[in-house]
Design a protein that fits this description.
single chain, mainly alpha, 2 domains, 25 helices, 3 strands
Length: 600
């Protein structure tokens, strides 16, 4: 019965959707507006309860019950401005595309529900930080050997924490990314509409976004790249709406979208900057001095939403953004750095499951670097401990997006050399903002072998432009072939995900045929026996207060899962012998009975 409380956030979201529809929003824009409002509500609930160490089932249930009641009252007492929404005519082919897109989304959703979280980063910090917050009944920082658990942006994990507490388990954890996949697909159709696409072009945008290999793989995980993608889509859409009709409500929506994206992932700072410049310049042209007031509102809303995390980081690290212990940014800057990272990032996106093709791409990247006198593994521009390589596969850490990359390049040339498209409202400025966003990304961040997942937001944001170009192709046969190819090439990533396959692949059994506990270890099956034996031993000696002594990439979350399965009583897990700036945070009343060393 208690698990029914997990429905409360969904009911609240539904009430917000119908409320915004009643305010005159179309169905798609109502969903985006509702999602932004819901995201803000979730921050408020989580931060306020955390402040008093009340982030537990009882108080969280009360908070969501009150929120649901308040939203129901808002809906019933709001003036009805709902507009009649006509369905656009669909051809047989566009209907087929919609069915294919729906099939991709539904299949990804099945994977998200059936499979437990098992991505490497989820095992080290995404899900581990959730367990510490639940244990501490607060999102306050705590001492940890895995500094990413506390320093990195937390919104996606805020959402998971709420679902985890209310549902008493992690069955809903993967759905945060999956819902953001749905939101992103709907959002890019709205952006395509604002860029001048007809209903056919909008459907094309949905297909392009839904078939991104990296997106499909991530949509059933507890990574956060799809989450930040969705908030950036909302930022662009409400930014365009704001420029069309400057008002406080749209300025607030832009500020909230910006704040939510920044609270989700650090890459949002790089991607949002050129998008904001584009939107601000456009607004200054249309509303002049009034724009300054709106810009202040946007920044105040964004900063307010991030203030809790900023304060926690500043108190612990003396820096609102990070501890500075992990060197994500380049050690040197200049044209050489930018050129090297652009080449390597494009090479990663070209990666496929064809070994010889990948080897050819690696050789080409190396030759380009040599011809320009650059070191492809320069320590100043490469994440420590890594070397340039392409190990692209059906894995959410490494999958390339070669066909989408080709379409991006094609769209750039098509828009730049087509007078009609170049002068189409917002198209060229939006294209320029995305190109600059990629340049900012390559200029600032060190290259790493897992960079593809960080580039997901850019590809999603590019989907409306790709769709516009495809819709302009005179040959219907060519356009249709491109779209069908996208759908067909998406199927292996949908069905044969290396971490969560629906069909048995290589040494990994289908998630439909194996037990849930084993699936936590799909990426590191050699660890399962060790963790099982450790959990059984701790149960045998009745030790429920466990001290962890770990490396920064240790798999912590599976230990929580196994110990909670074995113990009837509450367990407590804390990090000891911490060798970073979080060691100054006190551990109150913690007497442990066993120290678990986990190197990696």
């Amino acid at each position: 019965m208690f698990k029914l409380f997990a429905l409360l956030p969904f009911i609240s979201m539904s009430l917000l959707v119908v409320y915004f529809m009643r305010q005159g929003f179309c169905r798609r824009s109502a969903l985006l507006a509702a999602a932004v409002a819901w995201g803000v509500i979730l921050i408020m609930i989580t931060e306020v309860l955390s402040l008093f160490h009340l982030l537990n089932f009882q108080w969280l249930s009360i908070a969501w019950v009150l929120t649901t009641i308040l939203l129901a009252c808002m809906y019933f007492y709001a003036d009805n401005k709902m507009q009649l929404q006509l369905n656009a005519p669909f051809t047989l082919f566009t209907k087929l595309l919609l069915y294919c897109t729906g099939g991709i989304v539904i299949t990804a959703g099945i994977t998200a529900v059936v499979a437990p979280p098992n991505t490497w980063d989820s095992m080290t910090y995404h899900m581990s930080r959730v367990m510490h917050w639940i244990q501490n009944q607060s999102v306050a920082h705590y001492p940890t050997n895995i500094i990413r658990q506390i320093e990195l942006n937390p919104w996606a994990e805020f959402a998971i924490t709420n679902f985890q507490i209310l549902s008493k388990g992690d069955y809903l954890a993967n759905l945060v990314q999956w819902f953001c996949m749905i939101g992103s697909i709907l959002g890019v159709t709205l952006i395509a509409e604002k860029l001048g696409a007809d209903h056919r072009g909008q459907i094309f945008a949905a297909v392009v976004a839904a078939t991104i290999p990296m997106g499909i793989l991530q949509s059933s995980s507890t990574q956060n790249d799809y989450v930040v993608s969705f908030w950036l889509v909302c930022l662009v859409y409400f930014g365009i709406r704001f420029n069309e009709k400057p008002c406080w409500s749209y300025a607030t929506a832009v500020g909230a979208s910006l704040g939510l994206s920044l609270l989700t992932k650090g890459t949002a700072y790089l991607y949002a900057f050129p998008l904001l410049i584009w939107l601000v310049v456009s607004s200054l042209k249309s509303i002049k001095l009034m724009a300054v007031k709106y810009i202040v509102i946007i920044m105040l809303v964004a900063i307010s939403l991030n203030s809790g995390h900023y304060i926690r980081n500043y108190v612990t690290f003396g820096n609102i953004l990070s501890s500075g212990e992990t060197k994500y940014s380049n050690g040197s800057y200049g044209m050489a750095t930018l050129t090297s990272n652009v080449i390597r990032n494009i090479a990663l996106e070209m990666g496929s499951s064809f070994k010889y093709a990948n080897q050819a791409i690696i050789s080409g990247a190396c030759l380009l670097h040599m011809s320009m006198g650059l070191d492809i593994d320069d320590n100043e521009t490469t994440l420590p401990g890594t070397k340039f390589s392409i190990s692209s596969s059906r894995h959410e850490d490494a999958a390339g997006n070669p066909l989408h990359l080709l379409l991006i390049i094609f769209s750039i040339f098509a828009i730049c050399f087509s007078k009609n498209m170049r002068h189409q409202h917002n198209v060229l400025p939006y294209l320029s903002a995305l190109v600059i966003a990629f340049i900012c990304f390559s200029f600032y961040l060190r290259w790493q072998p897992w960079q593809n997942r960080l580039l997901l937001p850019l590809i999603i944001l590019w989907s409306p432009l790709i769709a516009l170009v495809i819709a302009k192709i005179k040959s219907t046969w060519v356009a249709n072939t491109i779209l069908i190819s996208l759908v067909c090439m998406a199927l292996p990533f949908l069905l044969l995900n290396k971490s969560r396959p629906l069909i048995t692949v290589e040494n990994t059994e289908s998630i439909l045929e194996t037990d849930r506990i084993s699936q936590y270890f799909n990426n590191r099956p050699n660890l399962m026996q060790q963790y099982y034996e450790l959990a059984l031993y701790l149960k045998l000696i009745n030790c429920s207060n466990i001290a962890l002594q770990t490396g920064e990439n240790a798999w912590e979350y599976p230990l929580w899962v196994l110990l909670q399965k074995e113990f009837d009583q509450n367990i407590r897990i804390e990090h000891v012998k911490v060798d970073n700036m979080s060691d100054k945070i006190p551990l109150n009343n913690f007497i442990y009975c066993y120290v678990v060393p986990i190197d990696r």
